[in-house]
């Protein structure tokens, strides 16, 4: 028999979250970001469920080819572009879009022999304040001139930039980035893209022609000061397992590795079959919430590879085999991430292969 741990992926919630994107940015096309295996939800599963998206964003050509091989026909954008000329024939053959963000990529395109019958769609990335990838805005005229000299590149590019602090509603950096992006792209011909999930939800001035939601599609708030429910989002991933033991201990008994937590009174302690080998955050502290039969209990002691232990003092009728929820429906992943001093991205992307996945439709 397989382990009790499984991840439940709610496909209906995915679609409803896409509707929320369109509600927020009704005039923009949607580039759904499905990189990192669909943020841990399964890249093909997510792309098929989000068949209403206008395009998909991935990191690597391998991710793009996985989508194309499965029959995904929407535009696919390589968000980090290409890094070797040998990739370009395949990019053109599979009709992939590429982001160009660095001088080395620009030189690669200038010296490449491109198929002029299947011209390459290029997104030019500008660094408006993130200071990670992208050309300085003042370089844009030269970048466009050099791209325009190639017959194998589509004449109209898309302009893209990335928001550095949109998840902080009161941070003026976003307004500064918008002003910079406007200054250098206003007179150019071509679509524009700026909004990530936070921009889509809170900064209408960033919507432009394409929004690029990632986190919000999976039912997770990008903001520290609001929950997914407050943003009109539904959790897509719910992590479930079961109690595999209930033990009675005495006051002063130490629980788990290192004995870091001791029983304050005679009490019942439950063992849930889920640990860091499954993707639970090893550094989650005692007190991190877990749902047992829909009721909150507290994680106690250290997280083990295959198990966690929980305080069952409030659960008089609990039995071995009862359901535990680690995060998802009824327990926001954002709350668990805060208790582990990390971010929700890391938790949902970190679920390991040994966790079974089931799909549900609500």
Strand % is 15-25%
Strand order in the sheet with the most strands: 2-3-4-5-6-7-8-9
What percent of the residues sit in helical stretches (DSSP H or I)?
25-40%
Shape: elongated
Distance from N terminus to C terminus (CA atoms, Å) equals: 27 Å
Biggest pleated sheet = 8 strands, parallel, barrel
Write down how many β-strands occur, each being a DSSP E stretch of 2 or more residues.
18
Structural class, by secondary structure, is alpha/beta
Give the integer mean of the pLDDT values: 97
Tell me what you see in this structure.
The chain has 362 residues and is an alpha/beta fold. It contains eleven helices and 18 strands. The strands form three sheets. It has an eight-stranded parallel beta barrel. A six-stranded antiparallel beta barrel has the order 10-13-16-15-14-17. A two-stranded antiparallel ribbon has the order 11-12. Helix 6 (103-111) links the parallel strand 5 (97-100) and strand 6 (122-125). The chain is elongated and about 80 Å long.
Keywords:
362 residues, alpha/beta, 8-stranded parallel beta barrel, 6-stranded antiparallel barrel, 25% helix, elongated
Short description:
The chain has 11 helices and 18 strands. About 25% of the residues lie in helices and about 25% in strands.
């Amino acid at each position: 028999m397989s382990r009790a741990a499984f991840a439940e992926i709610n496909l209906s919630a995915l679609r409803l979250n896409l509707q929320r994107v369109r509600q927020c940015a009704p005039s923009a096309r949607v580039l759904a970001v499905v990189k990192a295996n669909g943020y841990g939800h399964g890249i093909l599963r997510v792309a098929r469920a989000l068949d209403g998206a206008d395009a998909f964003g991935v990191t690597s050509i391998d991710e793009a080819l996985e989508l194309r091989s499965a029959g995904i026909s929407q535009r696919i954008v390589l968000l980090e572009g290409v890094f070797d000329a040998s990739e370009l024939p395949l990019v053109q053959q599979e009709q992939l879009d590429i982001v160009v963000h660095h001088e080395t990529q620009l030189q690669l395109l200038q010296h490449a022999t491109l198929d002029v019958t299947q011209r390459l769609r290029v997104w030019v990335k500008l660094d408006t304040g993130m200071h990670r990838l992208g050309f300085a805005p003042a370089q844009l005229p030269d970048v466009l001139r050099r791209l325009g000299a190639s017959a194998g590149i589509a004449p109209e590019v898309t302009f893209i930039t990335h928001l550095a602090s949109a998840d902080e509603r009161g941070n003026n950096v976003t307004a500064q980035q918008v002003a910079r992006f406007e200054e250098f792209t206003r007179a150019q011909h071509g679509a524009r893209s700026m909004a990530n999930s936070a921009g889509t939800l809170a900064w209408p001035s960033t919507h432009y022609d394409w929004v690029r939601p990632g986190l919000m599609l999976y039912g997770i708030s990008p903001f520290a000061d609001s929950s997914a429910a407050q943003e009109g989002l539904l959790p897509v991933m719910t992590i479930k397992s079961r109690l595999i033991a209930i033990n009675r201990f005495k006051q002063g008994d130490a629980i788990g590795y290192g004995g870091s937590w001791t029983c304050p009174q005679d009490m019942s302690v439950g063992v849930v079959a889920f640990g860091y080998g499954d993707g639970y955050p090893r550094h989650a502290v005692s007190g991190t919430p877990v749902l047992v039969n829909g009721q909150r209990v507290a994680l106690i002691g250290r997280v083990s590879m295959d198990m966690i232990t929980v305080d069952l003092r409030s659960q008089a009728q609990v039995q071995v085999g009862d359901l535990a929820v680690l995060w998802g429906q009824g327990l926001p992943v954002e709350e668990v991430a805060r208790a582990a001093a990390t971010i929700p991205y890391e938790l949902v992307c970190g679920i390991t292969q040994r966790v079974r996945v089931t799909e549900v439709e609500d």
